[in-house]
């Protein structure tokens, strides 16, 4: 596979905006896919060039093995992002994607000298705010109930046996990656971090979100919205405005 095909496999660009002054890289949640960010891309184009990462093990990559380690997934993603660093780059990650975004940002900054202009960490506690969680070890039914409780996936789809067989391997692998992730002390970030959470999210408290401040030498902000783990579904407009406003301030887009 040539480098162009490899890049297109990992990085999806739904609304190419070659004249944009900044790029936003979006990282999906556990069990999620790049297409989750299609509406964000549509809303920000053409002022921001939005890239969405497609992890192995889902949708058109479902025949590939899932990567069940966040540090390893970050190491795989970063080389695919380097060709896109010719202009200011920001990162947005939801849930597992926020932890992954932190690891990607660390590698970009400390191994490649690319400092993101912002990291938006959505619906995820700070890397140092650890919880012991073991959902990835539970039965298929328990894993499905977890997803239903967080309202992240249409439960009717997951009750279809064929759909379940397609979705479960990536979902379980992602949960393993998220639940076995451990923060490794070391250089933190120089870029601003904005933590965004829903006020009734059972997976992150205000204190756990505020702990993101300790992971950057730059500015920190905490934004709280009404809703649960997928508060994004009700507040997509507000989140897009927050992203757009910060990138406007940082780059003039």
Describe the structure.
- The chain has 253 residues and is α/β, with parallel strands linked by helices.
- The protein has a single domain (3-251), classed as Alpha/Beta hydrolase fold, catalytic domain (Rossmann fold), CATH 3.40.50.
- The protein contains 9 helices and 7 strands.
- It has helices at 3-10, 38-44, 70-81, 96-112, 140-150, 155-158, 161-179, 206-210, 232-251, and strands at 11-12, 22-27, 48-53, 89-94, 118-122, 193-198, 220-225.
- The protein has a 7-stranded mixed beta sheet, with helices on both faces.
- Strand 6, helix 8 (206-210) and strand 7 form a beta-alpha-beta unit.
- Helix 3 (70-81) packs across helix 4 (96-112).
- The longest helix is centred in the last third of the chain and has 20 residues, at 232-251.
- The model has no long low-confidence stretch (mean pLDDT 91).
- CATH superfamily, by name, is Alpha/Beta hydrolase fold, catalytic domain
Helix content: 40-55%
Question: What is the averaged pLDDT score?
Answer: 91
- Spatial sequence of strands, sheet with the most strands: 1-3-2-4-5-6-7
And the CATH topology? Rossmann fold
InterPro entries: AB_hydrolase_fold, TEII, TesA-like, Thioesterase
GO molecular function: hydrolase activity
Family: Belongs to the thioesterase family.
Protein name: Alpha/beta fold hydrolase
Concise synopsis of the structure shown:
Helix content is 41%, strand content 15%.
Salient structural properties:
253 residues; alpha/beta; Rossmann fold; 7-stranded mixed beta sheet; globular
């Amino acid at each position: 596979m040539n480098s162009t095909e490899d890049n297109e496999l990992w990085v999806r660009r739904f609304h190419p905006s070659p004249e944009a002054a900044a790029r936003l890289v979006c990282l999906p949640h556990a069990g999620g896919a790049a297409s989750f960010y299609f509406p964000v891309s549509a809303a920000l184009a053409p002022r921001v060039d939005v890239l969405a990462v497609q992890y192995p093990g889902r949708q058109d990559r479902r025949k590939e093995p899932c990567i069940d380690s966040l540090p390893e997934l970050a190491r795989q993603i970063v080389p695919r992002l380097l060709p896109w660093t010719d202009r200011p780059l920001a990162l947005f990650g939801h849930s597992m994607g926020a932890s992954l975004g932190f690891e990607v940002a660390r590698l970009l900054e400390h191994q490649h000298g690319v400092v993101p202009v912002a990291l938006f960490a959505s619906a995820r506690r700070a890397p140092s705010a650890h919880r012991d969680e073991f959902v990835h070890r539970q039965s298929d039914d328990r894993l499905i109930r977890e997803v239903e409780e967080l309202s992240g996936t249409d439960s009717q789809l997951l009750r279809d046996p064929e759909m379940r067989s397609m979705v479960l391997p990536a979902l379980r692998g992602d949960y393993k990656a998220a639940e076995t992730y451990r923060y490794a002390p070391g250089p933190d970030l120089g870029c601003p971090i904005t933590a965004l959470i829903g006020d009734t999210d059972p997976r992150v408290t205000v204190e756990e979100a505020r702990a993101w401040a300790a992971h950057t030498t730059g500015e920190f902000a905490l934004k709280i919205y009404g809703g649960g783990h997928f508060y994004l579904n009700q507040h997509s407009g507000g989140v897009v405005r927050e992203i757009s406003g910060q990138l406007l301030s940082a780059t003039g887009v």
